[in-house]
């Protein structure tokens, strides 16, 4: 394994991220005061500890970490795009993954923060404007993107999941934020006292102080943007990302290793299903987790039922279900 790789895909937690050199000068951020990185697992222990990344994925994760650039992960459904984020957070001890699932209705503002002025009015028990000196931070909750850009000592992992589902403007809006590494909360910055203790995406009990109505990062987060390829991204967007394309594992040994990783002894004598999966994948679109389901299910079925049962949980994802 080359020395420069911090994330290695070993699945064993270590402090390798402490060897991350300072950022290139054009990607240095000076937010503060520095916050300790939150403790705790990535939030998806089984997925994180069973993931076997490709060499290419390992290399590009490291490139994104060194260059302080978002990582755009493309590939068909079920190739492990989302899981990659959890696996990196687990191995490098980067704490809970900040998960931001994207739909066509998602706006940049959803990711940054929510401000709830109505609750604030109720809490104040009146229908006029609340006083400037009250605890406004109780009504501001940072979203996954807003939290990832807090000035943490170690990079947080932000999973912007299925960005290809977004409204057309979101990718470019996001890039602007990632270029600057900061955002403003006008509800705070226009107050006489623009500091407040706000809630974060790590839970209502987690509160951090935002000063001068602006959040600016210190360690740039590892941003994993996933895309099933439903949309092409503009060149300006691609230029600012590190990219990696994940493929369906195509070798019997590679698939068998993934099955064993997930199912341990339950994976014994599942070679016939791995071969059947490959046969079906050659003429259609299948995802690795369909094979995992088939192997699991067939452990509980009679020998004669195996193949029919497996075929039923491994339908072609790109077309109508076929039962051949
Ligand atoms: N390389 C891999 N190693 C281990 N498990 C994998 C791998 N690729 C996919 N999987 C498993 O397949 C399932 C789907 O992965 P997921 O990350 O949700 O895919 P995607 O986000 O690309 O649709 C998960 O259970 C994941 O653990
Ligand atoms: Mg996914």
From TrEMBL:
One of its GO terms (molecular function) is ATP hydrolysis activity. Pfam families: AAA_5. InterPro entries: AAA+_ATPase, ATPase_dyneun-rel_AAA, P-loop_NTPase. Residues 67-252 form the AAA+ ATPase domain. It comes from the Bacteria. Residues 8-50 are annotated as: Disordered. SUPFAM superfamilies: P-loop containing nucleoside triphosphate hydrolases. This is MoxR family ATPase. It comes from Actinomadura syzygii.
């Amino acid at each position: 394994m080359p020395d420069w790789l911090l994330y290695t895909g070993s699945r064993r937690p270590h402090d390798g991220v402490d060897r991350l050199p300072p950022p290139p000068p054009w990607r240095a951020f000076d937010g503060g005061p520095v916050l300790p990185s939150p403790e705790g697992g990535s939030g998806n222990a089984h997925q994180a500890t069973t993931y076997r990344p490709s060499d290419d994925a390992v290399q590009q994760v490291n490139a994104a970490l060194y260059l302080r650039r978002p990582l755009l992960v493309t590939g068909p459904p079920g190739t492990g795009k989302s899981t990659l984020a959890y696996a990196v957070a687990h191995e490098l001890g980067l704490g809970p993954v900040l998960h931001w699932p994207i739909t066509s209705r998602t706006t940049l503002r959803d990711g940054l923060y929510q401000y709830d002025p109505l609750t604030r009015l109720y809490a104040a028990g009146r229908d006029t404007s609340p006083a400037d000196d009250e605890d406004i931070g109780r009504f501001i909750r940072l979203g996954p993107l807003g939290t990832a850009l807090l000035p943490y000592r170690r990079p947080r992992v932000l999973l912007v999941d299925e960005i290809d589902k977004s409204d057309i403007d979101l990718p470019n809006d996001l890039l602007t934020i990632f270029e600057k590494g900061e955002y403003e909360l006008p509800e705070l910055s226009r107050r006489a006292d623009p500091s407040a203790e706000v809630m974060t995406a790590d839970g209502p009990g987690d509160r951090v102080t935002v000063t001068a109505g602006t959040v600016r990062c210190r360690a740039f987060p590892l941003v994993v943007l996933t895309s099933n390829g439903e949309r092409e991204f503009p060149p300006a967007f691609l230029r600012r990302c590190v990219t990696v394309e994940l493929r369906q594992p195509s070798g019997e040994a590679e698939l068998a290793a993934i099955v064993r990783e997930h199912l341990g002894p339950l994976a014994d004598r599942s070679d016939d299903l791995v071969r059947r999966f490959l046969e079906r994948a050659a003429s259609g679109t299948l995802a690795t987790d369909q094979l995992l389901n088939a192997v699991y299910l067939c452990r509980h079925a009679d020998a004669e039922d195996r193949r029919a049962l497996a075929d039923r949980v491994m339908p072609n994802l790109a077309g109508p279900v076929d039962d051949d």
